[in-house]
């Protein structure tokens, strides 16, 4: 029997993951084949909505509304909602977490300063912790109640890592995702003058990684992939430290060879 060619959406999902999420794509290679393509599809949903919001796509609000309507039990309309509906036929997706993700996206449609670390935790949960929660539904868990907060913590850790990695890029575009009370405490995150701020923020992210990784054992599948992804992402924090805590402007970049070594060491 000839092999079926993957559908166009799946091809888009695979190529999008490999093009814009290279670290995650490396980790996906460790996923069991029976769930890998659904993880790609799930990533496509979250990524395309995020990109639509970030790029000011005029369809972003309607696409979010379509997903929100699906979360409330209405028929699926639009590519993202239809993809989620198909995935929900194979996995018990937590629609409340998807709805929380949409709330984070709507916050980004009308960005406002983040006042406190507690507010930043909420934002990081909405835009990234939710992704971890939904991912656990695809991978399966032994105890969903125990796995959910830990999956959320791992997503929050990764989002905080993104924020620290992209400080200078965000400032160029007039954005800041650091809590205002933290900036008031340590001063603006200017190159060469932000070590204390970065030490504080790295410690917060590391604590979330530690919490999140305790949930990996609850997964039925994909434990190696999630462990590798977390290790590679966490290495960005170590690179920030090696670079002198933002002594110079620019993004902290972990060389590919080091990523692979870190992932292999974590998995083994």
Q: What is the succession of H and E elements?
A: HHHHHHHHHHHHH
Q: Give the amount of beta strand, in percent.
A: under 5%
Largest sheet, in brief, is: none
CATH architecture: Orthogonal Bundle
**Low-confidence segments:** 1-5
Number of helices: 13
Number of strands: 0
CATH topology: Farnesyl Diphosphate Synthase
Q: Between the first and last Cα atoms, what is the distance in angstroms?
A: 38 Å
Percent helix = over 70%
User: How many domains is the backbone divided into?
Assistant: 1
Structure description:
This protein has one domain: Farnesyl Diphosphate Synthase (Orthogonal Bundle), CATH 1.10.600. Helix 4 packs parallel to helix 5, helix 6 crosses helix 7 and helix 12 packs across helix 13. The protein has 13 helices and no strands. The longest helix is centred in the middle third of the chain and has 23 residues. The protein is mainly α.
Please name the defining characteristics of this protein.
Farnesyl Diphosphate Synthase; mainly alpha
Task: Give the topology.
Layout: H1 8-20, H2 22-28, H3 33-54, H4 60-71, H5 79-88, H6 95-109, H7 117-139, H8 144-165, H9 167-172, H10 180-186, H11 195-213, H12 223-242, H13 256-267
Helix pairs in contact: 1-2, 1-3, 2-12, 3-5, 3-6, 3-7, 4-5, 4-6, 6-7, 7-8, 8-11, 8-12, 11-12, 12-13
Summarize the structure.
With 268 residues, this protein is mainly alpha-helical.
